[in-house]
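User: Earlier you gave me the apo prediction for this protein. Now I'd like the version with manganese (II) ion bound, so I can compare the two side by side. Same sequence as before, with the ligand SMILES added.
Assistant: Got it. Here's the input I'm using:
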Amino acid sequence: MPHTLRSFLEQVDNRVLRITDPVDPITQVGYLCSESKGPLMFENLFGFDDWRLTDILIKDRAGQAAALGLDDVKEVCPFLAGRMTAGPGKSRILDHGPVKEVKLIGAAADLRKLPIPIHSDGDAGRYLGSGVTITRDPETGIRNESILRTQLTDDPHKAPFWMAARHNYQHFLKYKAAGEPMPMAFAIGLHPVYEIMSNWSGLHPDFDELEYAAGILGETLELVQCETIDLEVPAHAEIVIEGLVHPEEELPEGPFGEFTTLGTGAEGPAPVFTCTAITHRKDPIFRHMQATWFTDHQPLITLPMEATYYNRLKETHGNTNVIDVFVPPWASQFMMIVQVEAKWDGQVPDMLMSALSGPNLHVKTVIAVDEDVDIYNAEDVLWAVSCRCDPAQDVFIHPNSRLHPLDVSIPQVGDEYTVMRIGGKMGIDATRPPTWRARERENLSRVDPMGKGDDTVERLLKLVRQQR
Ligand SMILES: [Mn+2]
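And here is the structure of the complex with manganese (II) ion:
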C-alpha cells in the first residue's frame, strides 16, 4: 500500500484528537491548531458539509519519527540524513487515482468552496498554506515542488501567491521570457514525508522532491495526469488544484502571519494563480498547515534542513563527530543547535562557520553543545551557553551576510518584491574543550546528584517528579 495522509493518520490513530463540535474552519481553527500539541481532526466543519480538516501531524519529534517509521526520536535527523544520501526513488503514471473521484472543471472549480482558513488576525484573507506546489522546468522537463502561501480573493479562480527566489521562480522566469502561461498545481493531503521533502532546497537535476521522498519511504511515487493542464500530480492526494500562472498578471499579496509569528515580511505585487480545475476524493480531508508559532509550519521546513546540515557538518575537517542537529521550532527557523564531540581545537568554530554559510538562508544563530546536552530541551541548551561558554572567546558575529527574506529584524536591501536582507550571523561554541585536552575537558564535566543510579531512589523518582 502506498504511503498516504490516510495511512499516516491510521498509524498515529491513538494520538489523534477528534473534534465533533461544529467549528468554522475560516475563523476558528487557526487558534485551536496553534494551541495543539498533537494531531487534530475536525469532523464537523461549519459551512463545509462532507469535509474534514486535519493539522499538527509532525509538530514534535514523536510525529516526525512516526512519519519516518522510527521508534526513537533521536534517530530522526541521522536516519533522514542517511536516507537522503541514498538518492531518489522512481515514479510511474497511473490511469486513475483516488484524487480523481470528484472532478470540478472550469467555472465549477471555485477555490472559495474549499475549507481554507484564515491563519492569523491581520492576514489579507484566507490562505492556502498547505498545498505542495508543483511546476515543471520547460527546458529540462524536471518537476519542482515547494509549499507556497497562496491568498484567496473575491474572484473564485484568482489567487496571488508569494514565490521566494527558488527553483519554481526559475521556472516562472523561463515561461515569462517565452511569454507563455506556466502550468501549476497544488496537491493537498499527502503522507507527511512528501510534504517534508517538498521543502528540501538542494539541487535535483534529474528528479523532483516527490521522487526524493518516495526513495526515503522505499516506494514508487504514483502520479496521474491533470485534467486541464500538462502536469502530473500525486494520485493519492486528498485534493489537487490545477491552473495557470499568466506571465504578466499581478495582484497585491499579503500581509500574512508567517512562521516567524510576525505579520509582515514579503507583501507586495505578486504573480497570480488562475484555477482551471479542482479534483478531490469523495470524502476529502483538507490538510491545513497553520502558519503561526510552533506548529507544523516550522518542522516541515526545518526537518530536511536538519538532515542536510547533519551531512554537511560531518564533513568539517573531513570528519567531525556530529551527533544530532535540531532547529528548534520555538525559535522559528533562525536558530540551529548542533550536538557535537570535537577532537581538536578549531573544529567547532569551523563547523559553526560551515553551518552559517550553508544552503538555507534561515540559519542566523548556531549553538554547538556537547553529547551530554539534551538539544531538544531549551533549558539544557541555555545551561550549556551559561556554563560552558566564554563570550570573549567562544562567540563570533559575522557581518554582511544574506539572511532569510522573512526575517524582518534584518534590514532590507533594494525594493524588489523578492526580498533581499543583509545582516549579521552568530556562532556560539558552548562545548567543552576538545577530547585531546582531556584534563581541561574534565573540568567542565557535570556532577551527578547523590543517589542517581540507586534502584530505590529511581522508584521514588516518578512521585518526586509529579510534585507541583
Ligand atoms: Mn527544488
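For your comparison, keep in mind: The domain at 315-442 is CATH 3.40.1670.10 (UbiD C-terminal domain-like).
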